[in-house]
Prior knowledge:
Distance between the termini: 107 Å
Structural class: alpha+beta
CATH topology of the largest domain: Immunoglobulin-like
Amino acid sequence: MKGILSIAAAALMAMNAAAVEVADLSRDGWEIKVDATPEAVDPGRDFIVRLTVKGPRGVEFSLPDLRDRFGGFSVAEDFEEPVAMDDEGRFCNESRWRLVPEPCARRYRLAPFAIGGFHTAAVTFAPPAAREPVTGGYEIDARRDLPPLSWKLVGICAGALALAAVAVICILLAVKAIAAKVREIKMSPIQRAMVELERLLKKGLPGRGRYKDFYVELTMVVRRYVQRKYGIRAPNMTTEEFLRELSRSGSQNEAQSRTLTEFLESADLVKFAGLEATPEMADAATGKAKGYLETDNSLSVQQT
């Protein structure tokens, strides 16, 4: 440890030998001097600042903490010598600061600080010398060095490929879903109703005890079929309004009307009257809905 300290001390002595005085802040019997190494700030090198203070005879003092007073630098470390007394009875103190210049700082300076009952003037350090602009032609055949092959690079490439594959799969699924939706829209009313009925049955709502949701969706399959087939806004009407409007259209015979009325009214008991449904009731309702759709479509085909 002592060897390291002696090396650091030797380095500091070498830097002090080349130090240049940049400011004399002496005032009212106080001798205050600031020197720096090198003479001008170089962003590529550490900047050493030394503050030497001698007070009036017999006045003891301590140096202020200057860590927050340097502008354009970040403080790397500081050194402070023990207080000593010269032959004239004046206390002397010295501190050194190793600073790291910030590139492109607007200015490099030591802000005013308080000592001996007064504030010193600010100290501005010489900025970096202006560099000549670099000029030259374009590199037509510039070569790029490829990064060295490593497991990290392999992992990054594999991750990128996996993400790309996931993105492609998502796009293909989205395109497939859109195409299926377009095909469904182009279907005839009976074909579309059968697709919706099959989709509903695959959900298995009765098996999960969700009878009310099942009856709501089942009646909507029938209502949407009637809307597409006869132009009646069935989904927005009550059951009574819907049956009355359908009767006025003259599109249903007595048997069709009776079958549809029984189906819708029994469904309303589950949807609105709180009737507890069973799997058998759900199967029967599905059969009635499917039977109505097939019968109505068959009659429409025969009439045409």
